[in-house]
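Two proteins, back to back. First:
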Amino acid sequence: MKKQIVIPVCCILSAALIGGSIYGVMKFNDSRIVVDVLPVSMLSTQYWSNSSSYGYVTSNVSQQIYLEENQVINDIYVQEGDTVSIGDKLVAFDTTLSELDMADKEIELQQIDLQIKDLNKQIEQIKANKVPENSSPSFDDFDGSYNEDSNDESGVNNVSMRSNSSAGIHTMAFMSGSGTVMPVNLKVTEKTEETEPESETELSEAEDVLDFSTEPSESTGTYEVLCTDETIITREFINKIRGCDADGSNQNDERAQIVVLKTPEHGSWITLNGSRIPELTDNEIPTRLGQFRKNGNKMSTYPKKLDGQTDILHLNGQDVVYCTPNTEITAAFLKLISGDSEGSGQTVVLKIKGQKDYTLDPKQISMPEDESVIDTTNIDYFIKNNGFKILEPETEPETEPETNDPGIIIPGDDPGYIDPGIDDPGIIIPGDEPGGDAPVYTQDEIKQLVTEKEQEIAKLQTQRKQAQLDITKLQKSIDGAVVTSSVNGIVKTAVDPASENSGIESGQPFIVVQSEEGLYLTGTIDEMQLNHVSVGQTLTANSYMSGMTFTAEITEISDYPTDNQMGWSENTNLSYYPFKAYIENADGLTNGENVDIMMDSLNADADAADALYLLKAYIRQDDDGSSYVYVRDENEKLKKQPVVTGKSLYSSYIEIKEGLTINDYVAFPYGKDLKEGVKTKEGSPDNIIY
């Protein structure tokens, strides 16, 4: 005999009927909407490189070198009146800051790649109707190796390294727990046949504690401190090298220090640049150097729990542990300080944030015989009650009195209930059926979530592109640390701008070399070719006057575009960068000749020629800055499609790097009828909006 299931369904059916009617009307209205789409091939263009460029032959060229912002001069190799040839060294710049910035950007790039990888994994999980797991490490999660293959026994994890083998300097950037990146330098002593063994410094014993009174020893112009992984770094020490008072006040960049922590067991030195270390927070506490490394070159913070792994520090003659009133204390911690035998206990001073110190003597604390009855106990409760919070004994739950009205009866709740079998399954809750799992998302939710993840990826890809551009720029700065002469001539100016009475004002070159012999070819390179042209390449040119063809080697390319376009073939929507090239065999050429430069010889950007450039009007941006278009999908319905954009072209087009092909159809992304899922039809070319 089957039980009747009593369910008040009238209201539910009414609500369902009304909701279904509204939904049906909306769907009916959407079904009547048709949005015009146009082929991408009709709305796009391509970059067409000029096959030639205009230039001229000249004997009067000069090289001017300016001091850029944040540049530091290491050495000037020439004096006024010196005769120089192409390739002679003129000046060397310090690249330390650029190398540190490079380390930052490389870590940023790696983090972006991991986030993109994780988002793609989440998309696959969503499509499989599973809750996505965020496995991408965040800056707050790092306590191990950043690279999967990294296994540094020294404990220096989560790093990005850039090497300058000639100087023996390695730039290493550490992830901090706050999400910032603080680069440091590792100076590695490399023995070669020409290198003398390093002499002993006056440092003889490793420091136990680095505090405000620590005085580094100066060796070869560098302040050094000998340490081990057990050396304790205090807040006062960090404040000192930051140029602050012991409590972190009165910060002064002129007082900041650069200190090298020598750790022989690791075979490397850690350089802490005080001017680059961020201000300490109230939650940061003294930390052993070994843990300092593992934290990503950052102080530890107040622990959430005191247990058997808690690090007990010996400071000022006391064994201390830093905690807060809410820090949980466990039986395992008491066992840690109690020792294994009688008399071996350890008295510990609890340095409690915002409260007086508390001396914890394990002999004075009684432990319950059954540790399972200990409840979560914070320091505040522990001190006030001189012990742990004890769990209340469990009691049997009260039974509900039986009633004559069974209400809703779930199958199996009644002792006399008989399973109705497969012919009458009764009430089956989704996911309870054998072998079945409740679906996590509806199809519409899956579609929405996937779109959101794709938009996140598009935004990250834009950030990745910017990081790559920054790295390219920094690498160019590092590679150009030593500037050489681009002309054969005489040094007319050579002054150190930092010297007193240099006479060099802002915006003036501090080195000028004027050509004295030979002929040069000057011209311009457009921005699309710039990344594929470098000093030392050879180009071909043809003289209008003599008709002769000759070659020239590029000796200099300006970092700045020119306002003076040199020929009718230049496109006004592109930037052009001046260059000069030395003509080794100038027989038959005369000063001032106009020439036609074969641009094909400059390795024009083949990728740019194949790139897709879409009209700006058909690209929109979300609030987070990510770009998207409305594209027709395989069902001829409208779909919001994230895209990765690139450079601008001719002021009217934007490069589409990912997310769209020449074979797609897109809609104008504005209008009241514009929504995902509506029907599409191919529109007229007359309706193109520019």
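And the second protein:
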Amino acid sequence: MDRYYGFDLGDAESAVSYLNKSDVTVPRVLTVREARSFVTAYARLRNGELVIGEAACYNPDAMTRKLRFKSRFLKDPESRKDIKSFAAGVLGELYMSGDLVKGEDCCFYVGCPAGWDKTAREIYRELFEEAGYPPVRIISESRAALVSACQSKHFQVGYDILSKPVLVVDIGSSTTDFAYIMGGREVELQTAGEVALGGGLMDEVLLEIALDAAVRGERIQEIFKESPPWRSYCEFAARRLKEKYFADEEYWKENECRQSVIISYEKPVRLPLFMNEKTAERILYGGIPQLGGKSFKEVFVDSLHGVRAKIQGELPELVFLTGGVSRLPAVRDWCREAFPESVVITGVEPEFSVSRGLAWSGRIDEELRQFRAEIQELVRSSTVEKIVEQHIGELYHSTVDTLVQPILENAAMPVFDRWRDGEIERLSDINKEMEKEIERYLHTEEVQALLVGPITQWLKPISYELEEQTIPICIRHGVPYKALSLSSFLSISDLDIRVDAKDVFAVEELTWMIDTIISILIGLLCGGSGVALISGGISGIVAGAMLSLMILILGKEKMEEAVMNIVIPRPVRKLVPRGHFMSRMDKIAGEVRESFFKSLEKDKNEAITKRLVGEISEQIEQCLMRMAEVVEIPLG
């Protein structure tokens, strides 16, 4: 793609920005009908011509006029025709101005409220396709605003904030849209649907104040009833005056903030608009009928607290405001009161943050397609497997070092106690019981937790070797190299995507290792035909004499079989001190490790090792792909 266009089609105003593939500056806001921010309106003239923007509101040749149709999209199917007509008008203006050339390799990213589901977004996309647009992708306006913040040099916001919780508050003309974003993932937050609270309500209040004070107020009211587009046009003028006033309240305390609108309907009528401290108080803190008598502040603050209560994860570290109303200092103060732990920011030109973010999203998406392709190529190669295989022996060693002592204490000792208490009748039954107890113990949460430390440490050198592969990919595509640093994810606990050492491989994948440990352990504990188990205390002296006699009578093999299958009386078993067995376990722990390591070098099962390498490699590859998703700032 050579060019990326961002189209912020709002209910009251719209804006279009574009960005060249090679641009290093911010996206340029295009002028449509001599305005960077133009009225979302269209009119069909007597000669069939389609007119958009401010001219559509008052052109005397208009046969039909349509405004405020986007807010009806989800409820009124007829609004789709209006959106399509307006979009076609904007497209025509772009072609006429030369800002868009037919046949060029470009795409449009069009914004929509975060609350629209996939079905609504697809219907919306098809409207632009039917209007003749180049390829179109629909993404949420709140996401576009965050992308704009991350890309803008005005803020020190970047990859790090994408791993932190962010609340985007998009104050439009008709609704306020909340989106909670954590780790690049968006969660829509509603306080009973989209909050029916927008800057348009302020404009309506300001217009009503002007009408009450106007000499020809009643006549103007009649014109509004006969021609609703004129009312919308006057509201648009009121919005501009309101934004002008709140941009520098201190200045306007000493100066007049006024504007006159000429309504050309039959005979021209003049409507004076004005802003001062009194009207500002009325707009922000006075009761509004459309809000059930509540003030703008009351509803907005209630919505903020409602959103705060619905956030299930961490509270936002950043509250990012977008939309023209976000210029108001009072609005930022309300956000700080509701989220005192957060940084509240807004852009220099918040009315263009969405369209610019949309254009940026196009280039980011294209760049990250190539980024994803290289990551997938790395994952498909045998690189990860080779690195893991080189270190697999270290994993075996560290796992054995970690598990031997806990197995002795939590599996072998309970089996001895059961034999000593008479629950296990014969020494020959101990092998089977020991295997069951060790297997049970190895599936407990305790063992899973024990494995976290050694596996995490084992992954460290692997992560460093992987970074030699991922850092060049990050550099080529302008992605912070730490984004694909496995070692960073292992050490930073507040990221929601990390390598969970408990899940790198299941205990079942260590079957060969466990079987080897069990056989060595049982051999050392119960070796010598059970002599090792019972040769302690008084019973040990008796056992020694008895075994010597039995060897003379039965021979060694018969004796071993007899001892392993004899039912030793419980009182005799009690003579075997528990401390003796515990002492023996302490002595053989080192022997178990040494014997296992020898077995590892001699009898290692290549098939199981290969499967274990595959399992671990797949987990690491999946982790790389998940981390890549965080970097991508998913745009859907």
